[in-house]
Amino acid sequence: MQNKEVKYLDWGLQDYQVAWDKQEAIFAETLAIKHNNRVNNTTDPTPNFLVFTEHPHVYTLGKSGHEEYLLLDEEGLKEKNATFYKINRGGDITYHGPGQIVGYPILDLDNFFTDIHLYLRTLEEAIILTLADYGIAAGRYPGYTGVWLDADNEKARKICAMGVRASRWVTMHGFAFNVNADLEYFGNIIPCGIDDKDVTSMERELGRKLDMEEVKGKLRKHIAELFQMEIV
To answer: What is the pTM assigned to this prediction?
Structure first.
C-alpha cells in the first residue's frame, strides 16, 4: 500500500552522531515493517520522513571515500572545533556546519518510484528550483551528483553536495545545501574528491545572509511538489 504522507521533522542544530543514530532507528523500523509485510503477506503502510537539520562543524567520509582528502589531523580538527566520522552513505568526504540545510529524506521509495538515479535527480531539482526563487541559476555537472553554478565553464562551483544510502528502497542520509555556511571549512578537505572546483553558498552568491526558515519553507514546498508527497 503506497503512503505518500511524509512527516516533516526539524531537528534544529543537532550533534552529528545523535542525528545519525536517530536516522538509523527510523530506517530500521521502516525496514522491519517491509520485512514483516513480505514474510506475513501483510500490507502495513511504511512511514516516510523528511528531516531538516544543521550540524556543528563536522566532516563525514562516505564508504567509498578517501581519508587522505581530509587535510587535518586530530590536532587540526580540535583547533577548528570540528569532528570527523566515517559513515555508511555513498560519496566521498564532505563538510557539514551551521548555516547549511542538511536534508535527510527517510523515504520508502516503493511509495513513490523505485529508481535511485531519479531520486537523486529529483532532490537536485528541488534545490535548483529553490535557488531559482532567489534569482540564482543552478544546474548539474555531468558525471557528478549535487547542484552546481556555472557548471559549463571554468567558474564551476558546488552549492549542494549529496550522498545517500538505500536498502530495499528505503533511503537515508541525503544532501547538504550551503545557505549561510562558513566556506572556509571546505578549505580543510578535498570536497567530494574534487580538487579543482570551488564551493559556494547562497550568502556568497547574493552578498547577504539568508533567512534559513524561509529557505527551508521554499525547499520543502519544491520537494513535496516534485515527489507528489503530502507533508504533515
So the answer is: 0.95
Q: Catalytic annotation on 160?
A: no
Only one residue has cell 552522531, namely: 17
Question: Diameter of the chain by CA atoms?
Answer: 57
Q: DSSP letter for 185, please.
A: G
CA atoms within 13 A on the CB side of 68: 1
Give the Cβ contact number of residue 148 at 10 Å.
23
3-state secondary structure of 226: helix
In tens, the pLDDT along 86-139 reads 998 988 899 999 999 999 999 999 999 999 999 999 999 999 999 999 999 999
Catalytic site residue from 126, 138, 192, 202: 192
* The pLDDT value given to residue 1: 60
In 3-state terms, what secondary structure has residue 97? coil
Identify residue 45 by its one-letter amino acid code.
Answer: P
> Which residues are CB-contacts of 118 (< 8 A; sequence separation ≥ 6)?
none
Query: Considering only CA atoms, which of 183, 161, 184, 37 is closest in space to residue 93?
Result: 161
